[in-house]
């Protein structure tokens, strides 16, 4: 089923409103006409005021019409005595006080009836007339059927009525068009922006303005497009990083595997001249096997950390004491590699929440990086400082080092970064002259 556009739907709505308004207007006019016709025959309402009815002899006042409409009439002399009363008397006694009479006059506007009061200066009395609220009118419409202008009046009323209908129809159509345009313009803008996003242009934004609802829709759409753009950019960056990582890993694995294959082939062909060559080749094969195994383990560890099931197993402990123990374990390997260790560890306790197993991996990766790329005689410094919200750990290599421009896959440092990030910390890498520095910030709580 074909859906109606919004302009057609709004036009139908306004036509319905126009018809309803027209019917109500006609009914109101007819009702007012009938009421005024009846009123002009039965009661001349503006003649029923105290001023109009006032006579020096109040006994001669015609009260029949007042009785017919359920009203009342009272006469109060200068001594505040009710000397004449017709209908419902608002006073409780014949003799009233000045205060009672004053309160009555002050509250006439709030009374449920229409009350008019007039004072006769010659005879010195007040005339009070009360009428029910339904006949509280200041004038009336009178229709004179004998007037010679009757036909002309009817013709004028016809023209006025027709003009009223034409103006109402024209204004309704114009208003419908204007209102429809106010809806269609922002919707067209949103539709065009959605089409751009659908075609891959995530930079599309809208600025529809208008009322609050369209402004909210504009903000929601722009926020959605921005999030999609950021996510897409991160996804592309991640994909590029993944491709580069695969290339780097392939390159790093190629070298040790090529060495293993070459020397293993020589062993099979028995081209070595003696036992020393056998041992040398076996050593080379073993060392390259370790390199390849380290790369494979790093790749496996990275895959585990990127899995949604990855969790830290944290404990709360003194990080200073923990680092001292780890540095003691690292000393033999550093000395064997010809590096000079320099440990500067905060003597005070630094209580942190951390995963000891993952932190061990951080230190082993950084140690392997220093041994692999640092020349003998270089200084390997570790500094632990206490800061307000946790601790700052710095690893510094001094001396000539290929680590300043490492050609490896970078898996070890990437794993370090992910472990520290999982602890809520940050990793910064700085290289200046012969100084290769890695700063790690850790928080007290994860």
Helix-strand layout with pairing:
Elements: H1 6-42, H2 50-53, H3 64-68, E1 72-77, E2 82-86, H4 98-106, E3 114-120, E4 125-131, H5 150-198, H6 212-269, H7 275-305, E5 315-318, H8 319-336, E6 340-345, E7 351-354, H9 356-373, E8 379-387, E9 390-398, H10 411-422, E10 426-432, E11 435-443
Parallel strand pairs: 6-8
Antiparallel strand pairs: 1-2, 1-4, 3-4, 5-7, 8-9, 9-11, 10-11
Helix pairs in contact: 1-5, 6-7, 7-10, 8-9, 9-10
What does this structure look like?
- This protein has 446 residues and is an alpha+beta fold.
- It has four domains: 1-42 and 154-194, no CATH class; 49-135; 229-305, Helix Hairpins, CATH 1.10.287.130; 315-443, Histidine kinase-like ATPase, C-terminal domain (Heat Shock Protein 90, 2-Layer Sandwich), CATH 3.30.565.10.
- Helix content is 54%, strand content 16%.
- The protein has ten helices and eleven strands.
- The chain has a five-stranded mixed beta sheet.
- Helix 1 packs antiparallel against helix 5 (150-198) and helix 7 (275-305) runs parallel beside helix 10 (411-422).
- The longest helix has 58 residues, at 212-269.
- The radius of gyration is 51 Å and the shape is elongated.
- The two termini are 57 Å apart.
- Residues 181-233 form the HAMP domain.
- This is histidine kinase.
- InterPro entries: HAMP_dom, HATPase_C_sf, HATPase_dom, His_kinase_dom, HisK_dim/P_dom, HisK_dim/P_sf, HssS/ArlS-like.
- It catalyses: ATP + protein L-histidine = ADP + protein N-phospho-L-histidine.
- One of its GO terms (cellular component) is plasma membrane.
